[in-house]
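TL;DR need structure tokens for one chain.
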Amino acid sequence: LGKVSTLSLLDTTGSIRITFWNDDTERLEVLKVNDVISISNLNPRLSSLDSRTIDMFASKYSVIKKIQKKIQIEVGLIENINKLQENKGFVSFQGKVTSLDDLKEIISKSGEQLSLLGFIVSDNTDWIRVTLWREMAKEFSNKLSIGQGLLLKNVSLRYSNFSKRNEISTINDSTLELIDLEIENLKTMDLSKRSQDTFFSGNYVKIDSIENPGVVEIKGYIARDLNNITIYEACPKCMKKLENCGCEIREKTEFRMIANLTIDDGNG
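>> reply
TL;DR here they are.
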């Protein structure tokens, strides 16, 4: 089996992921977080995770050099949240918290336990989702509340293939400040539009409150790796496998998927 390692580099314009394979992974052992480096002779490819992003791949011809220099991330304030969907890289902005998830504890692929906090920040032009990790997630889970004004400095914009929108994450140079802020006509997530696109109403129930069989909507995170997925050829009328279909007329078939997964919403 081959070996693979990745590192993320950032400057004042944004960040990029670089992948190293096999023996080249050993070249990363001398690097640590916050090192300033230059890398040349990389191969660019379209990201498999985000069709709008380019990833870089190292080879034996790639050259890594440490630089005795400090890069300070400091960006200007964007006045309106709707402008964040047109930007990329690092931004600063302010708004009010209009939705706040419970603090979650998840297990990463490496086995590390991580704290996760998600919330929505809005102004009178738009809203955007923010995700905090580790100690910052723990800290602000006790500080934030609905309606709280918030100034976010030097945070990273990342496009989500799930929501089809830019979202916010943090870096070491990011800061969050609680502020007094008066904004009228706050924009919030449009659940009616979301339900038209996804066939969900947005009326979620807590997992531990489900007592009887039926159709419900829940919201949570996938707590275990997806390793039990079944693809089968089905009848589009009854949605059963072909060998179990009793329909008299069947002009075409379709492929459907069954995924067994564990969902945790913090309550069950």
